[in-house]
């Protein structure tokens, strides 16, 4: 029976080649009127865009109002979309095949990401993965990843079984919502660390489609 799977984007499906970092700096300057001094030092791993920009504002001593955040997200999405049109995202090995396989057999594929909505779909579109995904929850829905996962579940057309991500925060978000946690070590966190974080399944990468599908199926069918 088809079921839903929730996928994180960065580090799990693709890598945006640092385009986000430069875009954050540019959009911040325009929306907040001050230059953030250390864009290279920003940490995005497992973070949500809302949290990152609030930290940037706090460090610069400026208030992060809803109007500024909206302006920032708008400019961020424009910058990232333009950047990715020039420099396509790096899609991890086996990801297109895995997504195609799950999509064709009728699974509902959803997005759970700290990226704001426009940025999330822009990355998927430039990676040619967008056609397979039908719903999601995003960084402008909430600043907390577990809460974003909860919203994604509410939007899921069928029962979701697992959340697939690349950081301990994805594992936590899965478990807080009663989902199996599948962790893939293509991002910035090692397989050992992901296992230590309590992932129910750790995969080095998705290069072996058959193996990945069968491992995810076995795991997802164990009822909790
Ligand atoms: Mg990630």
Structure, explained:
The protein is of the alpha/beta class and 224 residues long. Helices cover 47% and strands 14% of the residues. It contains 9 helices and 8 strands. It has a 6-stranded parallel sheet with strand order 5-4-1-6-7-8, sandwiched between helices. Strands 2-3 form a two-stranded antiparallel sheet. Helix 1 (19-32) runs antiparallel to helix 3 (66-86), helix 4 (95-104) crosses helix 9 and helix 6 (145-155) crosses helix 7. The radius of gyration is 17 Å and the shape is globular. The two termini are 17 Å apart. The model has no long low-confidence stretch (mean pLDDT 93). Magnesium ion binds next to loops.
Percent in helix? 40-55%
CATH topology of the largest domain: Rossmann fold
Low-pLDDT segments, ≥5 res: none
Distance between the termini: 17 Å
Number of domains: 2
Could you give me the name of the CATH homologous superfamily of the largest domain?
Answer: HAD superfamily/HAD-like
Strand runs, count: 8
Average pLDDT value?
Answer: 93
- CATH class bucket of the largest domain: Alpha Beta
Give the name of the CATH architecture of the largest domain. 3-Layer(aba) Sandwich
Q: Provide the β-strand percentage band.
A: 5-15%
Structural class: alpha/beta
What is the general shape?
A: globular
What strand order characterises the main sheet? Answer: 5-4-1-6-7-8
């Amino acid at each position: 029976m088809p079921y839903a799977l929730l996928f994180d984007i960065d580090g799990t499906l693709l890598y945006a080649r640092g385009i986000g970092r430069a875009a954050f700096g540019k959009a911040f300057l325009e929306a907040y009127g001050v230059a953030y001094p250390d864009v290279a030092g920003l940490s995005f791993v497992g973070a949500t865009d809302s949290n990152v920009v609030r930290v940037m504002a706090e460090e610069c001593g400026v208030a992060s109002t809803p109007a500024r955040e909206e302006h920032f997200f708008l400019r961020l999405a424009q910058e990232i979309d333009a950047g990715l049109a020039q420099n396509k995202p790096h899609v991890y090995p086996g990801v297109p095949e895995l997504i195609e396989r799950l999509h064709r057999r009728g699974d509902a594929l959803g997005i759970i990401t700290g990226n704001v909505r426009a940025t999330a779909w822009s990355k998927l579109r430039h990676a040619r993965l967008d056609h397979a995904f039908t719903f999601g929850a995003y960084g402008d829905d909430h600043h907390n990843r577990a809460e974003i996962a909860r919203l994604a579940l509410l939007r899921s057309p069928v029962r979701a079984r697992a959340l697939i991500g690349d950081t301990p925060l994805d594992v936590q978000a899965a478990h807080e919502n009663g989902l199996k946690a599948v962790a893939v070590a293509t991002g910035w966190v090692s397989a050992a660390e992901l296992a230590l974080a309590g992932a129910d399944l750790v995969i080095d990468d998705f290069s072996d489609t058959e193996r990945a599908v069968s491992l995810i199926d076995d795991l997802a069918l164990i009822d909790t």
